[in-house]
Structure formats: C-alpha cells, structure tokens
Design brief:
This protein has helices at about 55, 65-80, 150-160, and strands at about 1-5, 10, 15-20, 25-30, 30-35, 40-45, 45-50, 85-100, 105-115, 120-130, 135-145, 160. The protein is α+β, with helices and mostly antiparallel strands. A hairpin with a 4-residue loop joins strand 1 and strand 2.
Length: about 170
C-alpha cells in the first residue's frame, strides 16, 4: 500500500486491508466487534496509518522528539474516549531507535490499560520522509492486547521507499 505524500509503501498484514488516503495511508484488521464502552460503535482488533507529523499537529525536530510527542495522542485516539471507557494507565513497552525505509527513526510503544474491554498496544513511529527529508512521517499503530504484538514489527520492518507514482511532495 502506497503513501505517496510521504514517499513510502507499507505492507498489509494477512487479515488486514488498507487504502491510500489524502494525507497518507491507512489499514485495519478484518476482525471487528461492538466497542465495549459504546456498543453503538464498531471497534477493530488493530489498525495503523501514516501521515506527515505536520498534518497530525505533532511537534518535534527529530524522530525521537516526534515519536515521544505523538504517543499520548495516539493512545487517546486508539483506546481513549467512549469506545473503551477511557485509559486508566499505561506501561512503556519500548522506546528505541529504528531504521525505516533507510531513514533513522524512533518508536515509542505503550500498553494502554482501558477501563472497559480490551487493553491496547499503541505505537508511534517517526522518521524523515525518504521523498523529503525535511518532512517527518508518523505511523500510528493500535492493536488489542490479545493480538500478536509482532504485527507492529512486521509492518515497521516492511516499510519501504515507494517506487509508485508522485514525487511525495505534491498534495
């Protein structure tokens, strides 16, 4: 799946589907269920999307600063609010440097403890866009804690420089 804005392509894990969106790319697992905190809404077992840090309003000059600045907003978006009755606490599972699509990046991974239903594993991954090194890319992940955490690593390791259309700079 291509994110032409960021100049990357992301692998879609088995049992997930994805699409390019105006400011990036998004994917979600096929497995869905009624949200435990708001049964009128539908939740999925996992999802991820990429977007420029600027589009998300995430501040920072380095990949590490951006990832650390983004993780709380990601956790709130993925597992906060009515869907899971809010986040009661979190544990830091990882905070480390990684290489993504040939770029020096950084990831922060939390376990978000919710008040209702599934706890979540959330990750914010940040790295300079291969198409425009001045643009920081953020990939936000969220998966239910009963899912394989390795899917986050599988997607991260599979992110490549896009060879698709567009120059990664035209919006």
């Amino acid at each position: 799946m291509t994110d032409a804005v960021s100049g990357i392509s992301l692998p879609i894990p088995k049992g997930w589907y994805g699409q390019e969106v105006p400011v990036g790319a998004q994917m979600t697992s096929d497995d869905s269920y009624k949200c435990p905190g708001d049964t009128a809404s539908t939740c999925t077992k996992g999802g991820a999307y990429s977007a420029p840090a600027l589009a998300l309003g995430t501040k920072g000059a380095t990949a590490e600063e951006v990832a650390k600045a983004d993780i709380a907003a990601n956790a709130e978006e993925s597992y906060g609010g009515k869907s899971y009755g809010g986040i009661t606490s979190h544990d830091v599972l990882a905070a480390k440097s990684v290489t993504v699509a040939g770029q020096k990046g950084y990831l922060v991974r939390w376990k978000a403890v919710t008040s209702k239903g599934a706890d979540g594993i959330v990750e914010s991954l940040a790295f300079p866009s291969p198409a425009n090194p001045k643009q920081m890319v953020v990939v936000r992940f969220g998966v239910d804690a009963d899912q394989k955490e390795s899917v986050l690593d599988e997607i991260t390791e599979g992110i490549k420089v896009s060879t698709g259309g567009g120059n990664g700079q035209v919006v």
